[in-house]
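Re: the request from the purification team.
They wanted to know what the chain is likely to look like in 3D before they choose a buffer screen. I agreed to run a prediction and write the result into the notebook, where they can find it.
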Amino acid sequence: MNRKKIIRLVLDFVLFVLLVFVDQGTKYLAVLRLKDHAPVPIISGVFELHYLENRGAAFGMLQNQKVFFIFIAVVILAAICYVLFRMPDRKRYRSMNLFCVLIAAGAVGNMIDRFQYDYVVDFLYFVLIHFPIFNVADIYVTCATILLAIFLLFVYKDEELRFLSVRPKKYREVKEESAGKTVKEDQQK
């Protein structure tokens, strides 16, 4: 691994820790200030802080499935680590890198809650549209996943994502790549 990639991974880790800290800090404040209290309107009739202990997933699905959620979070974290370690250290991949770190931070933020409380602390509520109550980690995961999907579908080309392949290259593919580089180098001279 080259020095540049090591620095990127260290910065990813620092950002990850900062994001988890922000998520856990806001949840701590929600427990401290909102639990057993009336909702606090921020924009009357539109948005409020409303404490909720969510034992399920998004929209309250799969109630009381703690082990399942932790397993899924661990699988997602493993996949993200694989992607981050394999990702080329080029400007082209910075957005994908950020999205992966956001998803990982959100998954860990909610996983910490499941270990600590057996539920996830939610407290952000759009009253106007009766949107399910959510938290900062949910924002990380939702926004980053949507943006990552858009980038994978419309920005990155298939050949730019070959680094994600788990199958080893065949001798013929390696030979063709080497030959392609030689031809390109000759054309550039």
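For the purification team: The beta strands are 40-43, 47-54, 120-126.
Please add any questions underneath this entry.
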